[in-house]
Amino acid sequence: MTDTDARTANTWRNWAGNVTARPARVESPASVDELADVIRRASEDGLTVKPVGTGHSFTATAATHGVLIRPDLLTGIRDVDRRAMTVTVEAGTPLKRLNAALAREGLSLTNMGDIMEQTVAGAISTGTHGTGRDSASISAQILALELVTADGTVMRCSADDHPEVFAAARIGLGALGVVTAVTFRVEPVFLLTAREEPMTFDRVTSDFDQLVTENEHFEFYWFPHTGNCNTKRNNRSAGPAAPPGRVSGWIEDELLSNGVFQVACSLGRVVPAAIPSIARISSRALSARTYTDIPYKVFTSPRRVRFVEMEYALPRGAAVEALRELKAMVDRSPLRISFPVEVRTAPADDIALSTASGRESAYIAVHLYRGTPYQAYFTAVERLMTGYEGRPHWGKIHTRDSGYLSGAYPRFGEFTAVRDRLDPDRLFGNDYLRRVLGD
């Protein structure tokens, strides 16, 4: 194999295709001991180390020119403790496998995001979240975690053991060490009733606080170039289970949300002038429906149309004003936006670098079809969001640096102090972390 062939074989790309890395070597350790050895050898060779999951982040948080660690062999359930109602899972386990395994045990996470392709470690390290009035992100459901630090030490931390590390490592950005296992708080599996309903933008924004307050989980999508939204309310149910019909579910989730949408996005990329007309048709294609199922089958949806994304967390009280300003900006601009804008909420939590740290939050996420120039749209959105003290999602496109972020997060210095102690030589560093955390 030539040097060129070797570099090509080691090339890593994220899911969206907007980040590429060519590590010096790729490792797939099969145990925590093997991982610790990989880290020690990398340090001896003067190489940095980055674990990578399924690449669902849109930033270069996992990119490295050093040693790329694939966690494919660090998977599975380590322990289910029904008395404590916890599950300990290997960090490389995909969320979809965790959700299915918990369901077989009659258990569930309390809340989750709408995509379950990520690994457990990837999801918690970047602050993956869903929507919830009372229940917060996946990281907020962690009771303990295990990570291998820069000197090869295996550290187990919780609220009682190394609490200062635990406060930071639940959303650690890969900056503190390599997470190898996570212990989640779980509960007996329950049923959720989802009510999906079209609604006008004006009504959603006028009734936003009421919709959030009256529902355990509320979210909506606004279709740019229209006054139309699609809302989703998820609430616990006594049952019985009534999942979507096989045919109707396929039409909504696969044909319309993926198949037809893929065609529409492809057409819009070739003929941008057609996008407003496509948006008006798309916003009316999804009809009202109600169904009841176990949590992961309600919270999550297949996402086969690839895109790039920016998301900001705002103080919840600023959400409606920011959304109205966003709509006005799109309406008066020459921008042509083919993807809906997603809006979710979260309660305040106590994690140092959580986007909901210390404040009740609303999330506004903007997307564009992969391959579509996104800079003008995302720059305009980011300018708007930072005017409302917005905090960017760590795994989604943004241009903020440590100067901005240290002011946006009251506990920013607490996190960087833990990083300085655990990784003073920046074994786990890369360009992205230098920008967002400083050096």
How many whole angstroms does the radius of gyration measure?
A: 21 Å
Percent strand equals: 15-25%
Oligomer: single chain
Low-confidence stretches: 1-7
Main β-sheet, spatial strand arrangement: 16-13-15-14-18-19-17-20
Mean model confidence by pLDDT: 92
Separation, N- and C-terminal Cα atoms: 37 Å
Number of strands: 20
Shape: globular
Largest sheet: 8 strands, antiparallel
Given helix and strand content, the structural type is: alpha+beta
Number of separate helices:
15
Helix content: 25-40%
What does this entry look like structurally?
It is a single chain. With about 450 residues, this protein is an alpha+beta fold. Helix content is about 35%, strand content about 25%. It contains 15 helices and 20 strands. The strands form five sheets. Strands 16-13-15-14-18-19-17-20 form an eight-stranded antiparallel β-sheet, sandwiched between helices. It has a five-stranded antiparallel β-sheet with strand order 6-7-11-9-10. A hairpin with a 5-residue loop joins strand 9 (about 140-150) and strand 10 (about 155-160). Helix 8 packs antiparallel against helix 9 (about 275-285) and helix 13 packs across helix 15. The longest helix is centred in the middle third of the chain and has 25 residues, at about 245-270. It is globular, with a radius of gyration of 21 Å.
Would you summarize the structure shown here?
With 439 residues, the chain is an alpha+beta fold.
Which features does this protein show?
439 residues, alpha+beta, eight-stranded antiparallel β-sheet, 34% helix, globular, disordered N terminus
